[in-house]
Specification:
Two copies of one chain form a homodimer. Helices cover about 30% and strands about 25% of the residues of chain A. The longest helix of chain A is centred in the N-terminal third of the chain and has 17 residues. In chain A, strands 1, 2, 3, 4, 5, 6 and 7 form a seven-stranded mixed sheet that branches. The first copy, chain A, has one domain: Alpha-Beta Complex (Maf protein). By secondary structure, chain A is of the alpha/beta class. Chains A and B meet through helix 4, strand 7 and helix 6 of A and helix 4, strand 7 and helix 6 of B.
């Protein structure tokens, strides 16, 4: 039995390490994100995580435990994905400035025929940003590979007044609940 | 002009790095913490941070900017400091289990005669812990040098259901507000 992380996110890798898991393989799912599915955010992230887990299962042994996840940022009912350009990043950060948005992460844990899903939502409060601050933040290069165009665990920490919920969920995995879920698969983190 | 961090906490060093500050000196204050001062927690952490900053100022140039901080954990009006033994750590974690406590960090920024203070409070919700989980967590060695006997940025993440407020404040520095405060001293982080 191997543990497989179906994600190439360095943040998710780091978070598994934080949980005390050191012996796991990484097989990134392609996970072509289709945000037009019309699902509410909580169901959407679970569906996307499940799809990634199933995709990677094709390359795994039935005894392997596959962990997959998907994270999205929502505001006013709209989903903010990863920005494709500096302009798009600027627009996203301008929208998030001075407001509270929600970050959803869905997690799928798959072993053979057994699939367990969960999602967790965290509210994130941005302080009001000047255009200069947004530009300087984009110049750090941090926003480009991240949903909502910021990374809370980097320079983006300077944008965030506070959160309500699981911090690690914003980084990409709801560590506390995932630890509990893995217990049911015989993987003890504490 | 140098930036001086008056703390030997590796977490605080890491957080200044996160803010984009790379060029700073470290002169740890001894900061003999006297928790019997009878001050409320918000005033207490500011007073302790100010005392540390002034202590280090004696070894600094008047143009240097000194950053000092103090973090305490409170529950039911009691202050939980750093545990002195495994037994004390066990007792603290047993008290925190399944409940919401508050973490206060006070920050002092001192340059010559100018002293600015702030404090930030963050609520932290622990999930209910079994005695086995507490024992295994103590066995990781993580609790011993930390107020409240846990580190949110380590295996302790598995204990915390969620927070309300600034996550980095729990780690030891309210990054967002400190960034704003440093601006007034001409130190631009974003």
């Amino acid at each position: 039995m191997k543990i497989i992380l179906a994600s190439q996110s360095p943040r998710r890798r780091e978070l598994l390490g934080l949980m005390g898991l050191t012996d796991f393989a990484i097989i990134p799912a392609q996970g072509e994100e289709d945000l037009s599915a019309g699902l509410p955010p909580d169901k959407l992230v679970e569906a996307l995580a499940a799809a990634k887990a199933k995709e990677v299962a094709a390359q795994a042994d039935p005894s392997d435990v596959i962990i997959a996840a998907d994270t999205i940022v929502t505001l006013d009912g709209k989903v903010l994905g990863k920005p494709h350009s500096g302009e798009e990043a600027f627009e996203m950060l301008r929208i998030l400035s001075g407001r509270t948005h929600r970050v959803y992460t869905g997690v799928a844990v798959l072993q053979g025929q057994r699939l367990e899903l969960l999602h967790e939502a965290t509210e994130v409060v941005f302080r009001p940003l000047t255009e200069g601050e947004i530009s300087r933040y984009i110049a750090t290069g941090e926003p480009m590979d991240k949903a909502g165009a910021y990374g809370i665990q980097g320079r983006g920490a300077l944008l965030v007044e506070g959160i309500r919920g699981d911090y690690f969920n914003v980084m990409g995995l709801p560590v506390c609940r995932l630890g509990q879920m893995l217990k049911a698969f015989g993987i003890v983190t504490l």
